[in-house]
Specification:
Number of strands: 0
Structural class: mainly alpha
Low-confidence stretches: 301-317
Largest sheet: none
Helix content: over 70%
Order of helices and strands: HHHHHHHHHHHHHHH
Number of helices: 15
Strand content: under 5%
Mean pLDDT: 75
Radius of gyration: 19 Å
Distance between the termini: 28 Å
Length: 317
Amino acid sequence: MNKGMLKRLLSALMYGVCSFLIVVVNKTVLTSYKFPSFQFVALGQMFATIIVLFIAKHIKVVDYPDFSLDIINKIWPLPLIFVGNLIFGLGGTKRLSLPMFTVLRRFSILFTMIGEKILLGVNPPLTIQMTVYTMILGSIIAALNDLSFDAVGYFFVLTNDIFTAGNGVYVKKKLESKELGKYGLLYYNSFFMLPFAAVFCWFNGDLDKALAYDRWNDAMFIIQFIMSCIMGFILMYSVMICTQFNSALTTTIIGCLKNIFITYLGMIIGGDYVFSLYNFMGLNISIIGSIVYSWVTFTKKDPQKLEQMKPLSSTTV
């Protein structure tokens, strides 16, 4: 195995593990502990990212550009996409069972494939497209037979899918421009959006709900909440690394592939999954599509197919 392939595999594995862990932790905080504000959790994750990277820069563990007004032009529109992805993702986690949340997240794959075509000029091979359509078919079958249907939850997750696709494509574009680097992207995303997210959280009453929560003196809850905040930073870093060494589409699908474990685990924890035969079949069809995509992506050796997944022109990135 060459060095490039090893980086691709390890970065994908890191993202998959982090993505799996944060969904479980967030589900525990928001559902098991009944924490009233997913927006406050998002604030905690952004704040943790700023603190960790600020300290890391000053002790010279990482490096990124110092603040200047030009940073705003270099990073836009990532902060807006970033906070939308975070808030709608947490909202969907709170309102839907884990199996339905994870299967609906597969629509982000289709949106990412479309976004890569439009913004990066990437043309996935037919085999890749067919696996994506298989995942979507399974998701539709599962959604049509979801006995715990929640319209608001569905809206949150599908909106989260759009933001996820936009985040993946724009991160790839910004990373290849090498203006801010992965640490600069992470730091300034959180830095610019934290004040707006805080005002929004206060305006809709979520800040008051979070501060009035009656389990702030519960040590186990505090540990889970801090874990969620720190895992938010680690997840964002793993997304950058995976997207840097792979494509935005691969990062999106790896995020869905890890849901193989979350889907079945979610039938046990959380207590909000309602079983039906067609829903269960749809979940498994979507999972099979994820497995086949991963196999095709990490075993293909045809240089022509590799070229098809690269941008058509350097001017598009």
